[in-house]
Structures are given as C-alpha cells and as structure tokens.
Write a structure and sequence with these properties.
mainly alpha; elongated
Length: 178
C-alpha cells in the first residue's frame, strides 16, 4: 500500500496570490447595461417595422364594416361599459357584492308587490315567520281527496253547465235566465 506523506511540499503548486480587482466587475456591469439597452432598441425597432409593414399591406376593410376613428390599442375609461352587454366582468367585487346584498336585505325586510295584477304581495320575512308561528304551516290534504286545481275547477264548471241530460224546455229556460 502506498503511504501518504503529509509533510511533502510541491514547489510548483500553490494558491492564487492576488484577489479579483474591481475593474473587471465594473466592466461586466457596464457591458451588461449597454447590452440591455441595445436589445431594448432592437426589439422596439422590430416591432416598429412590423407595425409599418402591417399597416402598409393590410387588406382594405369591407364597406359593410363601420369605421372607427379611435385607436383599438387604447382603451378609454368607461368605454367597456358602453360597448359590451350584460353580464360584464366584475371591476370591484367587494362593492358589487355589497350592493347586491343591500338589495336582498331591502327585499327581505320591506313590503311590496310581487305581481300587483294578480294581487300577490310580499311581506317582511320576520312578519312572515310570526304568521307561520301563529297559524302553523298549511296542512297536506287528506289521502284520497283531490286538491283544487285549474283542471278540476274547469271540470266542475263544465259539469255544472252541462244541459245535455235536461229536457229541452228546462234547458231553454236556463239559457234565458242567464
């Protein structure tokens, strides 16, 4: 086996005797900034050239299309609200939900008409709960009875106005009486 000798010293090997100076670091940073500026202007020039090319070789629009005098690249405040129909994206979720909840609270705690022509009104929910507590819930009709429905009412009205089994004289009197 080989023996390791720790006391041996090679004359040709060693460590670096001087530190890295500040001049190369500053040179690198300055060249990095200059290169970034050059790349910025190169990309800007490419986009500018492509925009000019696009505007020069773009086909003529159809005469059916309405021409807009404003640029499509700039958006005016409020233009989106005028242009797009409902439903729109939420711009401020917190205020919109607060307005929605306020409307719900006003509906739940106020009197008003649901359908005035049909005579259907709404009452505050607290009042409705008090009425339910006093009167109880509507009970289910007993088994075997048919609840009144528009069809059943129409059948009953048709049966009451049926004059086919009556003698001719009494049927005539009934029609004159009406």
């Amino acid at each position: 086996m080989t023996e390791l000798h720790h006391n041996e010293h090679n004359e040709g090997t060693g460590f670096e005797r001087q530190d890295l100076g500040s001049r190369p670091i500053y040179g690198f940073l300055i060249s990095l900034v200059v290169l970034g500026v050059l790349i910025y202007y190169a990309v800007w020039g490419i986009f500018y050239g492509l925009e000019k090319y696009n505007s020069k070789y773009q086909p003529a629009p159809s005469p059916m299309v309405q021409q807009s005098t404003t640029s499509t690249r700039t958006v005016e405040p409020g233009a989106v609200e005028r242009r797009f129909p409902e439903p729109r994206l939420e711009t401020n979720e917190r205020t919109e939900i607060n307005d929605f909840r306020l409307g719900e609270e006003q509906t739940l705690n106020s009197y008003g008409w649901v359908d005035q022509n049909a005579g259907v009104a709404r009452i505050p929910i607290t009042k409705a709960m008090e009425l339910i507590a006093e009167r109880g819930l509507p009970i289910k009709p007993a088994t075997g009875t048919v609840p009144q429905s528009p069809v059943n009412l129409a059948k009953a009205a048709a049966a009451a106005s049926d004059t086919s089994n009556m003698p001719a004289q009494s049927a005539g009197k009934q029609k004159k009486g009406k």
